[in-house]
Amino acid sequence: MEIIIIAAMAENRVIGKDNALPWSLKEDMAHFRELTAGYPCVMGRKTWESLPKRPLPGRLNIVISRSLSAENVPGAAVLPSLEDAIRHCADYEKIFICGGVSIYCEALAFANTIELTLIHKQYEGDAFFPEIDPALWVVKDRQDFDGYSFISYRKAYS
Asked: I want to staple 150 with a disulfide (CB 3.0 to 4.6 A). Which of 56, 80, 119, 143 is the partner?
């Protein structure tokens, strides 16, 4: 199974402010939809709550929470841990880890791919993407555009 962290971050590692994206980039949203279509999307409670439309259509939505129950999260499975979510998705060839910060930090140990949109600007924020260790992760593909880049990383030993 391919476990993929998918995120968008600014040059200063910002991924959010007040539980929302500090930018609007339709190309990133289209890229996210294209990559994740048909696959499970695993996220924390705050990320779930930040979605403008819930659940994400055409995907199994999984919310990691120890305090919420399925009746509080219509249209999504609720599991207590990232490891439980990964086990729950055993029949899928890919799963996507969609945030937030603590889920991303934990997922770095399990993931073999990072799909990152790098916004070529700095933003104020209160949520930051974890450091990508160049000893563990190598760039496999990079597409540069005006104002942003799509970067695919693979674990160095994968």
From this structure: 143
SS3 readout for the chain: CEEEEEEEEECCCEEEECCECCCCCHHHHHHHHHHHCCCCEEEEHHHHHHCCCCCCCCCCEEEECCCCCHHHCCCCEEECCHHHHHHHCCCCCEEEECCCHHHHHHHCCCCCEEEEEEECCCCCCCEECCCCCCCCEEEEEEEEECCEEEEEEEECCC
Q: Is pTM beyond 0.90 here?
A: yes
> Can you give the pLDDT at residue 158?
52
Burial of 44 (0-12, 13-18, 19+ CB in 10 A): buried
88-132 confidence digits (pLDDT tens) = 999 999 999 999 999 999 999 999 999 999 999 999 999 999 999
Architecture of domain 2-155: 3-Layer(aba) Sandwich (3.40)
**How far is residue 86's CA from residue 107's CA, in Å, rounded to a whole number?**
10
Predicted confidence (pLDDT) per residue in 141-158, tens digit: 999 999 999 999 999 975
